[in-house]
From TrEMBL:
Keywords: ATP-binding, Nucleotide-binding. Pfam families: Pkinase. Residues 282-306 are annotated as: Disordered. The keyword ATP-binding applies. This is Casein kinase I. Transmembrane segments: none annotated. Coiled coil: none annotated. ATP binds at K40. The keyword Plastid does not apply. It comes from Stentor coeruleus.
Amino acid sequence: MQEGTLFMEKYFIEGLLGSGGFGSVHKTIEVKSNRTFAIKVDKKRRGNVKQESVILQELQGGEGIPKIYEVGETEEFTYMVMELLGPSLSKLQKQQGGRFSVDTIVTVLIQALNRLEYIHSFGIAHRDLKPQQFLLGNENILFLVDYGLARKFMVMGAHIPYQSNCSRAGNSTYASLSNHLGIHQTRRDDIESLSYMAVSLMIGRLPWQQTVKLNSSTKWNNVYQIKSTIPLQELCQQCPKEFLSFIRYARALDFHEEPDYEYLRHMLSNARNPVEVPAEVVRHKPKRKKNVKEESSSDSSNLELKNVQDIKNRKIIVLTKSK
């Protein structure tokens, strides 16, 4: 797909937004309406655009879920036309000198938890969380994108059974320890990935991030060796203590367990000190489009949070450069 060409006789390809091993995302203008969109395509249909579109169709209508306008196939591509969003957290982090303020990070994390709670309510795990997958939209709403590796952990109303000897999926930097060990990913793995992202946004990079190109197996093994042995207090020494608690909580979750999103929002809000936490950000929960039946496997969801007001979610992310 070339810049300056017309695709499907109606989409003018204005430029490349990003690319990966199997596909690419382009900025496009619909000629008839002059509206701007993003179009994601598979290279020779080897990627996951078709599968991703099925997941996204199920999630449509949720806050922070990209809207889909068209899905189709040609002899060369499978494509998906979506709403055009703003920069990623990764790009914004670079613009901020590699770090965000604590207040900004907490606001990001609470919105990210809202997105995870929403997609998890459909029995879907994202399985590839990283700063590049979170984009800003209108009114600074945080969007979670790229569902090419997303999978169902609930099937026919029941949680999938424990599985090991699975292929590792996602990215090694933010992968959970269970993912490294070949255990099938569920909700807990998304939460653990987000906890590593919290530290990364705070200190700039994680100690196990690789700086040289290695083959996939060597890279994953090197990352796991550091990630599994580094003392968590050392990892989080430049972070609020709540980030340490976040990682410990995530690693303690069981395979079938539903995370206590409310508890996590409340806990992370305490890291705002000396900034007073906006109660509406902590309390707001995304609306579910349908109920998912599952086994109750944890007492953590019964934790009671007191003195938190139940009002509408604050949407503003203050991108303040940390000093």
